[in-house]
């Protein structure tokens, strides 16, 4: 499986954070989650030695390992991990392993240390100056990951690729962005991603620069570019926002939207003229859909695509069940008890997962 096309759940660009590391004498832990690729300039020395764009610990003189704990910007199911040792050649760790934890709230590093960490990647060898890939098959939703390097050394980036799974307890299911990555939406396909990924369209926040949007190559034919979004779940789109911010000489001239349920497509927004460097908002009144396709004419760049609306009853069921089915067993039981079930009933229900219907407290 090529998991590298999935979002990096730990990225600073998606709200990730490195909460703790036992050592960062040579290079700071925060570098692990920087969204940009690592860089290196030879013979650049600070007061602690060569400057590295990564996390680097001191040389150990006694047995032990070094660790860093990350909070995922978007909790979700981890599909694969990249331990990137770029530019670390004589100072990379020979081995690593990775664990995951699922926790509510905002625990401190000391509280996280007491959790029951679950293995995601077993103790594995690393190569220096290499993107070391590891596939993960756990299938549960995690909020934190812990990287252990054995015994010491430097890691440039830790990429935690996976599928975001939203907690419905923090959502208004009758009014939300159905296309938001953080709510579980994903890119289903696109015609061209020459300059940048279409996943940027549905990422949190505003694009700060043109490179944080989706931009296609210049077309030299009579066709047009497009992107399809699988919504967080089935819903009715009431308002669309097509944001061309930062795209000035390369914004699309026009755009249209179509929605799909099953194999049938519906027009949501007819072909409409766009302006450069502008947030366009359009009120919509179409049927419930599971996918939306945006066509841009003929090509160009878009910073963000927002599709605000309400989940249908079927959509609400799917979103809640997705969350319950991916929670670790103890967390799923706790959620059902919070909803009104007894401890025994919750345990018995969790043992029957996966759910296709939201369990009832009655």
TrEMBL record:
Residues 15-164, 184-310 form the Allantoicase domain. Pfam families: Allantoicase (PF03561). Keywords: Hydrolase, Purine metabolism. It catalyses: allantoate + H2O = (S)-ureidoglycolate + urea. It comes from the Bacteria. Its EC number is 3.5.3.4. One of its GO terms (molecular function) is allantoicase activity. It is an enzyme of class 3 (hydrolase). Pathway: Nitrogen metabolism; (S)-allantoin degradation; (S)-ureidoglycolate from allantoate (aminidohydrolase route): step 1/1. Belongs to the allantoicase family. HAMAP family: Allantoicase. This is Probable allantoicase. It comes from Actinophytocola glycyrrhizae. The gene is alc.
């Amino acid at each position: 499986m090529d998991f590298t096309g999935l979002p990096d759940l730990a990225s600073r660009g998606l709200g990730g954070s490195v909460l703790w590391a036992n050592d960062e004498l040579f290079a700071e832990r925060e570098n692990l989650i920087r969204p940009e690729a690592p860089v290196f300039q030879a013979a650049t020395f600070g007061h602690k030695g060569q400057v590295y764009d990564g996390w680097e610990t001191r040389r150990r003189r006694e047995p032990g390992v070094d660790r860093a704990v990350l909070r995922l910007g978007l909790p979700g199911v981890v599909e694969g991990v990249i331990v990137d040792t770029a530019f670390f050649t004589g100072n990379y760790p020979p081995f690593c392993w990775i664990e995951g934890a699922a926790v509510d709230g905002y625990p401190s590093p000391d509280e996280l240390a007491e959790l029951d960490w679950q293995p995601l990647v077993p103790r594995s060898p690393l190569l220096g100056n290499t993107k070391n890939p590891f596939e993960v098959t756990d299938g549960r939703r995690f909020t934190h990951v812990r990287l252990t390097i054995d015994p010491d050394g430097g890691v440039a980036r830790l990429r935690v690729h996976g599928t975001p799974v939203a907690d419905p307890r923090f959502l208004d299911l009758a009014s939300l962005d159905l296309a938001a990555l953080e709510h579980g939406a994903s890119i289903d396909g696109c015609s061209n991603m020459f300059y940048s990924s279409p996943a940027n369209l549905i990422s949190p926040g505003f694009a700060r620069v043109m490179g944080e949007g989706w931009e296609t190559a210049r077309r030299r034919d009579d066709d047009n570019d497009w992107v399809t979004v699988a919504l967080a779940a089935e819903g009715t789109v009431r308002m669309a926002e097509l944001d061309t911010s930062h795209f000035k000489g390369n914004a699309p001239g026009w755009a249209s939207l179509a929605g799909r349920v099953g194999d049938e497509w519906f027009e949501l927004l007819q072909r409409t003229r766009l302006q450069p460097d502008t947030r366009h908002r359009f009120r919509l009144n179409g049927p419930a859909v599971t996918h939306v396709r945006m066509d841009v004419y003929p090509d160009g760049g878009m910073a963000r695509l927002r599709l605000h609306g309400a989940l249908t009853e079927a959509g609400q069921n799917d979103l809640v069940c997705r969350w319950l089915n991916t929670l670790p067993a103890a967390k799923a039981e706790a959620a059902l008890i919070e909803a009104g079930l007894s401890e025994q009933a919750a345990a018995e229900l969790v043992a029957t997962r996966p759910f296709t219907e939201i369990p009832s407290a009655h």
